[in-house]
Amino acid sequence: MREYGFTFPTLSVYNSGYLKGAARMNVYRKILLSVAALAAFCTAFSLWMQYGFGFDPCVMCIVQRMAILFAGLAAFVLAWLPQRRMWARLAAAVGVSIPAAWAAWTAVQQLHLQSLPPAQQPSCGAPWTFRLQNAPLFDWYEPLIRGFGQCGVIEKFLGVPFPWWSLLACTAMLAAVWGGLWYNRRFEQ
What we know:
InterPro entries: DiS_bond_form_DsbB/BdbC, DsbB, DsbB-like_sf. This protein is mainly α. It has helices at residues 18-24, 27-53, 59-78, 86-115, 128-131, 138-145, 162-188; strands spanning 156-157, 160-161. Helix content is 65%, strand content 2%. The chain has a two-stranded antiparallel ribbon. Helix 2 (27-53) packs antiparallel against helix 7 (162-188).
């Protein structure tokens, strides 16, 4: 537009420094922040399915939700360690893997429970709201652990049971943190 004597100001986010910092960010830190974003999405999606569509989560579903939430919180907090050090990357991988593996193990248990005939399905236990009703600050986290569903009832999204989605998310988290650790060790040093 120079022929009219006017130039449009360019709005460049890259030149302002925001994306320059992201481009220079350590690869493993990007992976950890991606894992934290995946965990936040999974937690928000499970809450949306519960409160938006009326799905009633069971005890095992709530364990998976909380473990994925803790994996995401661990990934977010551990992403700010000095990721150029091997001990920091290893600590982050272990810190994210423990709750993610716990959620995956619970999802596999729930899938096994759902594969049993209804007469052979054991009870999944008392609801978390009953177990923790006298705990401190219960009113703050009660919406996260509310649910009275049966663990043997197969609830689906896009034709796939919810424990499979949880197992897929946990597998993606574990593959990302350990694959990123391998990548960083192999190619960045």
